[in-house]
Each structure stands twice: as structure tokens, then as C-alpha cells.
TrEMBL record:
<feature type="signal peptide">
    <location>
        <begin position="1"/>
        <end position="22"/>
    </location>
</feature>
<dbReference type="Pfam" id="PF06863">
    <property type="entry name" value="DUF1254"/>
</dbReference>
<protein>
    <recommendedName>
        <fullName>DUF1254 domain-containing protein</fullName>
    </recommendedName>
</protein>
<dbReference type="InterPro" id="IPR037050">
    <property type="entry name" value="DUF1254_sf"/>
</dbReference>
<dbReference type="InterPro" id="IPR037049">
    <property type="entry name" value="DUF1214_C_sf"/>
</dbReference>
<dbReference type="InterPro" id="IPR010621">
    <property type="entry name" value="DUF1214"/>
</dbReference>
<feature type="domain" description="DUF1214">
    <location>
        <begin position="383"/>
        <end position="488"/>
    </location>
</feature>
<dbReference type="Pfam" id="PF06742">
    <property type="entry name" value="DUF1214"/>
</dbReference>
<feature type="domain" description="DUF1254">
    <location>
        <begin position="120"/>
        <end position="235"/>
    </location>
</feature>
<dbReference type="InterPro" id="IPR010679">
    <property type="entry name" value="DUF1254"/>
</dbReference>
<keyword id="KW-0732">Signal</keyword>
Length: 505
């Protein structure tokens, strides 16, 4: 049977698609048969795609309509990938932007304190409502070398403008929990650093510093005063500069990257502000083709604005798939359970010599901050996080249903454990109008065998202690994060296992 040229071309493509083995071949010893120019099989003059039929005059010259389709699709693909590639940087930028816009920060010396715990009105990605946060937004382009002077007993980290790890604060940082002065130097800084500081050369101008306080920090006005007196951020050249401490709890803030075309306006802001060296030339080249380039005005026409909007929607949709329906073989922490890793392999997002880009999206779409101590393998040090989107039957968790989660006896933690419910749309605290966190610090009822039953549902199930109930929103789904503060051997070696969610009704 004689094949048409398009079908013959596809047959060859599919034949080679099955060859997927990496080979360290010595081409000088090739046994392949000789080829000549006639063996080259060009793409056909008519190509069917998911964005329409493409026609090429004279065998390869795209006609006017096909040219328009191709550039629309090329720009859409590059913008969609840019949405995901730059999401970590966008996430940090929108946090810093929200703190100037929504909390009224005027200098990097101003400090935010979630003194009455985080609320759903502050939509930080999977933030918790059981610890007191303090944070500062730093810009080395404005202030030059900047000092973060922290008190003893902190636990936190600093990340650069690409949301990459710079350092830990506190017990897992160089101060070892004793407090100290951290000096962040701007890109290209050449002078010698002064003595008496923990010194870090930042590849970016903007930095976000976040930490948690425990014990004597307290909450409310006490926590605000505690941090105001002890946490100091100031330019190296102005050691006496002080800012204000703001109780941010319940004030409301939008920290999330946009999910429409406005994302790209903010992306241009980042590119204009930060040094070009922060991002690869390849990524910057992709942006240049869609009109985002350092030193040049950003002026998308109507066509590009529509493409940017569609690209943002596609980027969100793909990020949701990567996060909530992962195809990663190693995603489950325990193979027989539905608890999933938030860091698939490591906190650097590298694997087998390449960037682990889906693992990066999986973390950054649902969480903020990067530190190796968020994936602790040292008993009693750092933290560990697992997330769950599905019940025992692998169905998504839906707010109009009732579930039971049994936490086995003796959770392997040095500090405490907690499970918190989140909104899958915002990946932030679930705004159900009720309690959304249960943990060892909140005194739930304990079963005779030492286990704890946690119930999830829009209504309190009959006979269930209210301290063991997380209220859900019947109009939407939810997911949870289980936190291990100071994970111990049972978690690290996987001998202690969380149960799956069981559907009650």
C-alpha cells in the first residue's frame, strides 16, 4: 500500500518515538547504513495541529494565515512556560508588594508580625495559624548592604528574589539559636565585609526574611512589642534606623501571583528591577520574544494582552495538574497511602543533573520559602510537611462530605504536630468560618490507644468533640498539610504512618 506524504512522515516520527534509551555511542564506530540527501524526510506542506491547519507554499513557505497562527501559538507557548518558570520569583515579589501596599511598610526596617496568628484574610501560600510569624521585606538596591539582627530562639530563613535559599535563622542557621547579626550584600558588592556579622552575598536586590517565634514571644500586643524590641532591620550605613512593628493578623492582604494577564506586567517589573544575572540567558531570551526585556518599555498590544491572559490561565491549569494530580512516581511518602511529598526529592529542585522543573512548580504553586531544613532528615531538627488531596478511595477531598483522619499514637515529633485545611483555589487558609487546624498544641481528645481522630466536614458530626473537628466549606474542595515540627526517627525512617482519610458520609 502506498502511503501519502503526511502519513509517511508521521509513520517515521512514531517509529523513532519508541527509541528512548540514552546511549553513549561512539559515532566513529557507527554501523548505520549510508544515507544521501534523498533519505531526508521533510515535514509535509500541510500540517494538522491543535491550533489549526498549517499550509506551506512551495513546500515550506508559510502562507499568511498559517504565519499568524504560528506566531500566536509560539507566543502563547513561550508566555505559558514563562508563567510557570518565573512563578517562584513572582511569588516573592507579590509578597513584598503586598507588604508595602496592604500593611503600609515604608522601609525595610518595618516589620510585620502575625501576632494573633495568620487569618484567611491574609492569603499566604499554605501559611499556618498556629505559630507567630515575623517578616521583613528588604531591598538592597535602595538601602545597600543591610543587617537583619535577630534575637535568640528564632526559626526561619531568608530567600532571594528568585525565591532561592540564602540562609536559615536560628537553631538551623549559623547563629545556632543564639541570635546574631546577618549582613546581606547586594549583587556586585566588592568591598570587604566588616567583622561581627554572618555575611551573605545576595544575587538579587530584593530579599524576604521570615521567622517564627515560640515560648516567651507570646501573642497579640505582647508579640508585637517583643519583636519590635528585638528584631531589627537596617542599612549597614544607618545602624540606628528603626521602623515600626505592625500586627498584620486580620488586616487582610493579597500576596498571591495574579492568575490573569496582569501577571506579565508584574513580571516586567521584576526584570527591570533585578540584575539580569539572576536569571538564565535562555529564560531572558524567551521573555524578550514576548516583549519583556530589561531597559525597554513594556507595551503589549491587544493581541499580546489576549495571549498573556490565555497563557496565565494555561499556566494555572498546568500548575494545578502538577500539584493536585502529580504524575511523579515518587510523590507518595508511603507507597500505600495518599499522603504526598511537598518537596519531591530535595529543596534545590535538581535531579540527575537537570533542573527538576515540575518538582519546583509543585512546591512553589502551593507553598513559600525554601530551606534545606524544611525537608529535615536529622531527628528533632527542622520541619517536615506532607500534603493530602484525596481520601482512601483516591477521590478528591470535598467540603460537603464528612471524613475521619486517624493520627496514630505517638506522632514522631520533638516540638508538636498539626494538620491544617486549605482552599485549593488559593492554596491558603480555608475560610470556612470555623476551626481549620488541629494539633498537639490545641489539646484534642485522645483515644484510649493514644491515637487522635480528626473529623472534617461542614457540620460537627454527632458525638464528636468540637476540639477534634475541622469545619469545611460545603461549596468547595479542600486539602490539608500535616506538619511535623522537629520530626523524629519514626517519620524519617517511615515506620510511623499516617492513616488515609476515610469517608464517613
Amino acid at each position: 500500500m502506498k502511503l501519502s506524504k503526511p502519513i509517511a512522515f508521521l509513520a517515521i516520527v512514531f517509529a523513532f518515538a519508541g527509541v528512548s534509551y540514552a546511549q553513549d555511542a561512539n559515532l566513529f564506530k557507527s554501523n548505520e547504513p549510508k544515507q544521501t540527501a534523498i533519505d531526508f524526510v521533510p515535514a509535509p506542506a500541510v500540517i494538522e495541529t491543535n491550533f489549526g491547519t498549517l499550509k506551506f507554499e512551495g513546500g515550506a513557505f508559510p502562507d499568511k494565515q498559517s504565519t499568524r497562527k504560528l506566531y500566536d501559538e509560539l507566543d502563547l507557548q513561550r508566555a505559558t512556560q514563562a508563567y510557570m518558570d518565573f512563578f517562584p520569583a513572582m511569588s516573592l515579589y507579590t509578597i513584598v508588594k503586598s507588604q508595602t501596599r496592604d500593611f503600609g511598610f515604608r522601609t525595610s526596617s518595618d516589620i510585620g508580625v502575625e501576632a494573633d496568628f495568620m487569618k484567611p484574610s491574609e492569603n499566604y501560600l499554605t501559611g499556618n495559624d498556629i505559630t507567630v510569624y515575623a517578616f521583613a521585606s528588604i531591598d538592597l538596591k535602595i538601602d545597600g548592604p543591610t543587617v537583619v539582627e535577630i534575637p535568640a530562639g528564632m526559626y526561619g530563613n531568608a530567600n532571594d528574589a528568585a525565591f532561592k535559599y540564602l540562609t536559615d535563622f536560628g537553631a538551623t542557621g549559623p547563629d545556632k539559636g543564639k541570635g546574631g547579626k546577618y549582613l546581606f550584600l547586594p549583587p556586585g558588592y566588592k568591598d570587604d565585609a566588616p567583622e561581627g556579622y554572618y555575611v551573605f552575598h545576595s544575587p538579587s536586590y530584593r530579599i524576604w526574611a521570615m521567622m517564627r517565634g515560640f515560648g516567651e514571644v507570646g501573642n497579640g500586643d505582647q508579640a508585637v512589642k517583643w519583636f519590635e524590641e528585638r528584631l531589627k532591620v537596617y542599612p549597614l550605613s544607618e545602624p540606628n534606623r528603626r521602623g515600626k512593628a505592625v500586627n498584620c493578623s486580620g488586616k487582610g492582604a493579597n500576596t498571591l501571583p495574579p492568575e490573569d494577564g496582569s501577571y506579565f506586567k508584574l513580571l516586567n517589573d521584576i526584570i527591570q528591577h533585578e540584575p539580569s544575572e539572576l536569571f538564565s540567558k535562555e529564560l531572558l531570551g524567551d521573555l524578550a520574544t514576548i516583549g519583556i526585556e530589561k531597559g525597554k518599555p513594556f507595551a503589549p498590544d491587544d493581541r499580546m494582552q489576549k495571549i498573556f491572559h490565555k497563557a496565565a490561565l494555561q499556566g494555572v491549569a498546568m500548575s494545578r495538574a502538577i500539584t493536585y494530580a502529580s504524575r511523579e512516581p515518587e510523590i507518595n511518602y508511603w507507597p500505600e497511602r495518599h499522603w504526598e511529598k511537598m518537596f519531591v526529592r530535595n529543596t534545590e529542585f535538581v535531579f540527575r543533573g537537570h533542573n527538576d522543573i515540575d518538582a519546583r512548580t509543585l512546591w512553589h504553586y502551593q507553598a513559600i520559602c525554601v530551606s534545606p531544613n524544611l525537608l529535615s532528615t536529622t531527628p528533632g531538627v527542622g520541619t517536615a510537611y506532607l500534603t493530602c488531596f484525596r481520601d482512601k478511595q483516591a477521590n478528591y477531598l470535598i467540603g460537603d462530605k464528612t471524613y475521619r483522619l486517624r493520627v496514630p499514637a505517638n506522632p514522631p515529633v520533638k516540638r508538636f504536630w498539626a494538620v491544617t485545611a486549605y482552599d485549593p483555589t488559593s492554596r491558603s487558609l480555608l475560610n470556612s468560618g470555623g476551626n481549620i487546624t488541629i494539633g498537639s498544641m490545641r489539646d484534642p481528645k485522645v483515644n484510649d490507644d493514644g491515637s487522635v481522630d480528626v473529623y472534617f466536614g461542614a457540620e460537627l458530626p454527632a458525638g464528636v468533640n468540637k476540639k477534634n473537628w475541622i469545619k469545611t466549606d460545603p461549596e468547595k474542595g479542600f486539602f490539608v498539610v500535616f506538619r511535623f515540627y522537629g520530626p523524629l526517627e519514626g517519620y524519617i525512617n517511615k515506620t510511623w504512618k499516617l492513616s488515609d482519610f476515610e469517608l464517613i458520609d
